[in-house]
Amino acid sequence: MSSPIPAGPDRKASGDGISAATAEKPKALARPAPDKLPAWADYALLPLINVVAAFVVSGLAVLMVGANPLEAVKIMVFGALGYGEGVGFTLFYTTNFIFAGLAVAVAYHSGLFNIGAEGQAYVGGLGATFVALALDHFLPWYATVPIALVAACVFGAAWAFIPAWLQARRGSHIVITTIMFNFLANALMVWLLVNYFIQPGTMDPASRPFTEGASIPKLGGLFSLFGADLGAAPLNLCIFLALIAAVFVYVLIWRTKLGYEMRTVGLNPTAAVYAGISTSRIIIITMLISGALAGLLALNPVIGDQQRLQLNFVNGAGFVGIAVALMGRNHPVGICLAALLFGMLYQGGAELAFDMPQVSREMILVIQGLVILFAGALEHMFRPGLTRAVNMISTPQRRRMVEAGEASR
Amino acid sequence: MRVKWLAAAAAVLFAGNAYAAEVSPAVIYDIGGKHDKSFNESAFAGEEQFKKDTGIGYHEFEIQNPSQYDQALRNFARRGYQPIIAIGFSQAQALEKVSKEFPKIQFGIVDATVDAPNVRSLVFREEEGSYLVGMLAALKSETGKIGFVGGMDIPLIRKFACGYVQGAKAVNPKIEIFQNMVGTTGDAWNDPVKGGELAKSQLSRGADVIYTAAGASGLGAMQAAADAKKYSIGVDSNQDDLHPGSVLTSMVKHVDTAIYSANMDMKDGKWTGGAKVLGLKENGVGYTSDQYNKDVLTADMKSKADEAKAKIISGEIKVHDYTADNSCPM
Hints:
Chain A is mainly alpha-helical. Chain A has 19 helices and no strands. Chain A has a domain at 90-336: ABC transporter involved in vitamin B12 uptake, BtuC (Orthogonal Bundle). Mean pLDDT of chain A is 85; it is low at 1-33. Chain B is an alpha/beta fold and 330 residues long. Helices cover 43% and strands 19% of the residues of chain B. Chain B has 11 helices and 12 strands. Chain B has a 6-stranded parallel β-sheet with strand order 2-1-3-4-5-11, with helices on both faces. Chain B is globular. Chain B starts with a helix and ends in a 5-residue tail after the last helix. Chains A and B meet through helix 5, helix 8, helix 14 and helix 16 of A and strand 2, helix 3 and helix 11 of B.
């Protein structure tokens, strides 16, 4: 029953009492620099330093395989942002990562670590596919897609429901159950694709291609109005859906009663019970929302891009979502920015592998892994130093405020 | 007729296209990756051989996610590389699209058929090679029980398994065949530990010959068979030298030579599009017999297998292809 997530300095960032904490923190801890940073440093400077550190270390790795790291950075940035098609691909990947990041973040606010976004998205794709296969001959896309959207949400949420119920009612740890449900999702989808969806006479375990009736318009036309050529990039309307979802998550978490309850359960489940909040109810509702967001991810690759259900179409986006949520401090704005960074890494990385034969696919993984390492696991490595530095240059005014606070006590 | 037309079209293409004679091959590996100890690696070997023999380098790209199929093909085509060879059936849909956009560029695809004049489709009759090694397994087995360890439960692997079962049953209709798959994700091709465990379980149930079609996972199964002093059968490339005396034979699928000759044809101006089905007859698949397995593969067994091979080539024995109707008669 108890909330599984370790409380860290992060925890405070998820609330809104940041500015208050700076001045009122009791000095009894005897630490000269409380680990509090002004918001701009916490949300912008620290992640930036982490990313730069990751790139410096990656640069050393690139140097080791005998390539020029500056050249590599140039290719990556140009590949991701330098021309229309690159931008299109970058934003396409970004869309996936926003959904996955939001799914992880929503759960995180209730103190739940949802590792299962991958599986929930996979099963969400199944829901979307059922609708697409059933209706694509009869309805236009603007009628099919909303139904597919609901189906993807429902399937994703249903896949998250069982781990949620087990956590809420039986105390089975959500980390373990959601990981296991990823494997179950894989097994289920392979079985369905190989035995039922496959078209006779083909090798490829994939459903039949959807017709125009189940497609999501690409944004190539829209961008060409502004003189940009997206080429063959699969960027589609889903990116707007992702941004709407981000706004929805913000409103839900910080502007509704339910969100307040979710945060309360996340911060202190015992206190939540004392306050009359049913933790098991909140756990289940949170995971349903989280699973639904993960399920939405499936629309982008399945209906937006490939227009058929394929084996392993999620391809790790659900796991990247964990890094995106961590890096984005579980805030929708941060998540969108972190998702953009990972989108750039994906697209720029592909471009790099293409243009620099020494840099293999595994090298790209190393670079992505280093960013995750520095932004996630080593997130707090630079924090004490940075806090000291910021405090040193911070205005005497703040020091006076702190002193005044102490004097009045 | 069709072939003639294609050849004529190709000839016209070469005449009108300055860099057509200048072969600059590119290869796009599937998600499994270049070093999968299986058909991607075999493709890599083919390109390397070509580079060694002709001094002409090649470009390569490893696919990370399905959205990159189109992208990689277009990137190579736009830069004028050819032939651009896509490895794996997953790339078929993308190639169908891209080959139309670049009608002057020559493409190739392994394990799938794309019906376009500028695409050479290289398809292998894995079931025929598997039939022969199935026979050899049944001839070798003393317990009347043999095993099959596949990577992932997909049609391609069922095609291997189905051929194997047909061959074994042709020798001994009462033979018992255990079949297991390593996993349900891409990791299934790269999990030697699980492959070994499945093989051990089959061995403990009495199997004494194990055929693997599981990429690098198969290496674990072959190790397990060698440890138990039983037999294994390798796949895709010649793996006889892994455990001499324990590896009965290998079912080889010559992706390497298919790619090598595609590049060579392009270089010599003999390129043709269309489907090339490579079976026993075309020497696209087969079983190995060399100094490493000469002690375990007896002359009697070989003569029986070669007899069946001749019959398959002549059409007297028909080996059912699982992917023709997604079912196996056995």
